[in-house]
Design brief:
InterPro entries: Ig-like_dom, Ig-like_dom_sf, Ig-like_fold. Residues 19-149 form the Ig-like domain. Keywords: Signal. Residues 1-23 form the signal peptide. It is a single chain. By secondary structure, the protein is mostly beta strands. The protein folds into two domains: 25-150, Immunoglobulin-like, CATH 2.60.40.10; 155-253, Immunoglobulin-like. The chain is built from three helices and 18 strands. Strand 5 (79-84) and strand 6 form a beta hairpin.
Length: 293
């Protein structure tokens, strides 16, 4: 009988409200910005939608395309992780099963009460693109945003050594235990300048660890003669976590291999080499949100 009643209402609405007249609309999708792994107890992803009495048979679904899932196809279908039909108990599915507070209420309104995800103890495997889809018998709307749980590096090391080729030096940089997948770039600049340039030709290797984190290392060979003829230079190892919008640069000074002391392994802090007027404006170690080179 209940099914017949729903069908009757749907047929009435088809006459009163033809296809396309639904006001179902997601006004705002709220997803937190980058979160350091283990730093919060829970997060809320809210799908704020508007509906009217004309919208019958509303269903709210959340989908996830995981960053940490090596089997995930970036162009494929995401996984259904949450579903709620007003008047029924919400369900957490797949990667979110057992990870969602199903009693959380976004509002006190029966039609929007359980629209949000309250994820408990979010960790890196729950990073990815979340899509909220709200549908009724006569309309549908969806929106998507990424949520990133990141892990900064355990260490970032930059060294320089004499290369096997005459008149050249080798730069080596490595970082361990990073998530999401990072990038490494060598940069250089005159010691008294704030403008750095990217050094081309580096060989970069990334290792996927069993714990889901990444190790990364890079090497390149530089012509020492060209450096000796120019201004005093510093090298930078530029580590970026693009999805988290995080950047860390380690700087070391170049010392000529033709000098009396030979090549000094980089160990001095750049702030000690800069004039006082510049030292305060440039950090050797600094997390930032993509500063310009």
């Amino acid at each position: 009988m209940a099914a017949l009643e729903v069908l009757a209402v749907a047929l009435m609405l088809a006459v009163v409200c033809p296809p396309g007249c639904s006001s179902l609309h997601i006004g705002q999708l709220q997803v937190p910005g980058p979160i350091r792994n283990g730093s919060v107890k829970d997060v809320v992803l809210d799908c704020d939608y508007e509906a009217t009495k004309a919208d019958v048979g509303i269903v709210i679904k959340w989908f996830l395309n995981q960053l940490a899932d090596p089997k995930a196809d970036p162009k494929g279908e995401p996984t259904l992780v949450y579903q709620w039909i007003p008047g029924r108990i919400p369900q957490a599915l797949g990667p979110l099963k057992g990870r969602v507070n199903l009693g959380y209420r976004a509002t006190d309104e029966p039609s929007t009460r359980h629209r949000a995800l309250n994820i408990v103890n979010p960790t890196i495997e729950l990073s990815g693109e979340y899509r909220c889809q709200v549908s009724s018998l006569d309309g549908e709307d969806s929106r998507a945003k990424k949520m990133i749980i990141y892990v900064p590096e355990d260490n970032l090391e930059l060294t320089q050594s004499k290369a096997s080729e005459e008149g050249q030096i080798r730069l080596s940089c490595e970082a361990d235990g990073v998530f999401p997948r990072p990038t490494l770039t060598f940069i250089q600049k005159p010691v008294d300048s704030l403008n750095a340039t990217v050094m081309e030709g580096a060989e970069v290797r990334v290792t996927d660890r069993l714990d889901g984190l990444f190790d990364i290392e890079a090497d390149m060979v530089v012509d020492a003669a060209a450096l000796d003829d120019g201004p005093e230079m510093v090298f930078g190892c530029d580590l970026e976590i693009p999805d988290a919008d995080i950047r860390l640069v380690k700087w070391e000074r170049y010392e000529s291999i033709s000098g009396a002391a030979g090549l000094a392994l980089a160990s001095k802090r750049l702030s000690l080499l800069l004039p006082a007027s510049l030292a305060s404006s440039l950090s050797v170690w600094a997390w930032s949100s993509r500063p310009r080179l």
